[in-house]
Amino acid sequence: MEEKTAESRRVYDVEPSDVYADFMTTGWAPSPLHGIVQDxxxxxAFARRAKLSEAFAGLRIIIPSGNSKVRSNDTDYRxxxxxxxxxxxxxxxxxxxxxxxxxxxxxxxxxDSILYIQPRSTRDTSAFYNDRKYGExxxxxxxxxxEASVRFxxxxxxVDELKAILKDGTPAVAxxxxxxxxxxxxxxxxxxxxLENFVSVARLIKDxxxxxxxxxxxxxxxRGFNDVIRALPAAVITPRGERVVEAAFFGxxxxxxxxxxxxxISAAGSHACILHWxxxxxxxxxxxxxxxxxxxxxxxxxxxxxxxxMPISGKFSPAQRSLYMLVYxxxxxxxxxxxxxxxxLEINKACHTVLAQGLVDLGILTISAExxxxxxxxxxxxxxxxxxxxxxxxxVHDCAQARKDQYTEAKxxxxxxxxxxxxxxxxxxxxxxxxxxRGIGIRIEDDVVVTETGYFNLSENIPRHPDKxxxxxxxxx
Length: 477
What we know:
The chain is α+β, with helices and mostly antiparallel strands.
């Protein structure tokens, strides 16, 4: 009988008898998979690897999916692979396992790609019934190496073979810090930081597959917002009703996607003034606003990032509508600034200019908008705090390893996907605002594709104007 690994053995496990072990080898019918087809992403992954190969000619390139992370004792978090692994392999959803590694072996001026995985625990081993991490009766069936090769269009080998191969002395560059085996064998290469940067910058311009997936994610997220609106009456009568909202959206994420793209911000009342409110333990009261910042991550791991601020009762008060329209006009100005060739930060400037002028018009800012917009002044930021755009894709804050000159200090290019999300937050103790405005937080966030002449709003169908939000809510309640 095969011995279980230390990782798979638990103190309360009862070791099976030899008779049981022998018995478990008998009486199993063959169960190969038939009709395996490739997902639409596979040709795109092949093209992406070709560009990566060209950039690191002569080096072995190593991109791990990552190891599992412990949540508590012997219980792990739900596994989510490294985005670069997803991008270059095309492996999606529950088909991605921890400890998998993409290795691109140098072959002249090109590379041969090999995917190392933990394959199916077949019935001629004991792992299928006694290995809690990989065993088929514990976690479900996985592909054999041959099945995975057909599915992903790449040579596939057992990950058990990887250590010996990595120790053969071939010059290598790896994404470090994500796989214990890779880190233990591969010495840091001076080009390691270049690889980290490359696989991030490569995703700045989305291909056709990526844009289609992002549109799907936005559409599912829209349905999740519909679910939340339907759940608001229950949220109002339930203690910690923000969690009713959170749960409603999470249900849609799991039904139609892989997971949440990030922890949902379900912020009712003055909690909306806390930018990353994820405790979600407050009450939901009629008369207040609900700021919902949420996105569904699909099985392809692409995520939406949408924020809507809506009146819990279904109707905005005059004060709420007044501040909402200021943010709405700021977002319109941000949209108008978008087109290929424009500085990335122009979006932020356009939104903040409108917000600063609005605060002047309200009598809150006692200096001009022009003066406040000067970098050394910026008084209006007391009520808006954050920038209004970031890249979006496999990560909710995509391309984060790009340098400033490649991202925030660069020009927009057609095919970039980014958010436009101005906000205005009046803290409940802010005496510079009249009482009726205090405790109101508003953010409006949409996901857009940059084009040569402007933009395409992936989330255009999710109502934004207050009149349309009220009609949307009425239609679902």
